[in-house]
Inverse folding.
């Protein structure tokens, strides 16, 4: 008996998939029994519907479209499928962990923005002047984790990123645990130039190093932090490289008898995406 075929509108009703989604999955290779009629219209069989249901069960488990189709094509036996489920469970646990990091980061950024808005309002109410540099007058002494990092540049020379391509990709895979950051060298900050030339890095707290895979650890550097002065400032990108904008920091260090111990870690906290307004930066300044 010849198997009945169904037009895409009928198949859509059978599976609950929109025609556009059916076409997308068909191009991805999901519907192995589908055929194209002489008039160019695609038709589908009950086998395609059964396969669609199995596919969506795999999507429920969190497998990607590509992986789910590969699993259907490979015809895994029960033992292999169980191993796949165990592996997926571990992946989902890692994903949940990263999502928690991202939520914490997002909430922190919103809190900092709220603080900035309040500070800016206080300044305007007091003086009727536009706020200038720092919104966080309170320098805070903190104990910060050392950072592991990979260089994407040395100053504004990004040629090292080609050499570090694999390690940079591994760090980017862990975004939220890792940071797109900058290092301001102590020598640069204390030099005679009126501007600084920060290096772009991707960093992570040293206690998260267990997450790194596929990295040449000889290319990964360590930034010692420990006892740090933390402060935040709101500046345009042009202002942020002007050495004079660090004067409040050095005045604070001198007033409290601190000395700059090593390189500074700069963490972008909020960026004006059009590049026209002011960004908010968090700086961790190692001191002795």
């Amino acid at each position: 008996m010849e198997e009945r075929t169904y037009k895409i509108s009928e198949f859509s009703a059978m599976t609950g998939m929109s025609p556009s989604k059916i076409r997308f999955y068909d191009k991805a290779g999901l519907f192995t029994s589908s055929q194209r009629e002489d008039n160019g219209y695609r038709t589908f069989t009950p086998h395609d519907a059964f396969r669609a249901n199995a596919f969506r069960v795999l999507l429920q488990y969190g497998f990607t479209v590509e992986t789910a189709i590969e699993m259907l094509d490979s015809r895994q036996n029960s033992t292999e499928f169980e191993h796949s489920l165990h592996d997926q469970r571990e992946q989902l646990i890692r994903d949940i962990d990263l999502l928690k990091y991202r939520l914490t980061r997002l909430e922190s950024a919103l809190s900092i923005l709220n603080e900035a808005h309040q500070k800016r309002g206080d300044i305007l109410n007091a003086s009727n002047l536009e706020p200038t540099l720092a919104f966080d007058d309170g320098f805070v002494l903190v104990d910060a984790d050392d950072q592991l990092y990979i260089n994407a540049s040395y100053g504004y020379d990004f040629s090292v990123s080609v050499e570090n391509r694999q390690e940079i990709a591994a760090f980017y895979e862990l975004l939220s645990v890792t940071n797109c950051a900058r290092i301001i060298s102590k020598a640069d900050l204390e030099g005679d130039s009126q501007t600084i030339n920060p290096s772009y890095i991707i960093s992570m707290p040293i206690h998260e190093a267990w997450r790194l895979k596929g990295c040449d650890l000889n290319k990964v550097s360590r930034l010692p932090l420990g006892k740090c002065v933390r402060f935040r400032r709101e500046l345009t990108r042009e202002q942020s490289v002007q050495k004079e904008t660090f004067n409040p920091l050095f005045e604070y260090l001198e007033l409290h008898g601190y000395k700059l111990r090593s390189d500074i870690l700069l963490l972008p906290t909020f960026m004006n995406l059009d590049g026209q307004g002011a960004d908010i930066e968090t700086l961790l300044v190692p001191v002795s």
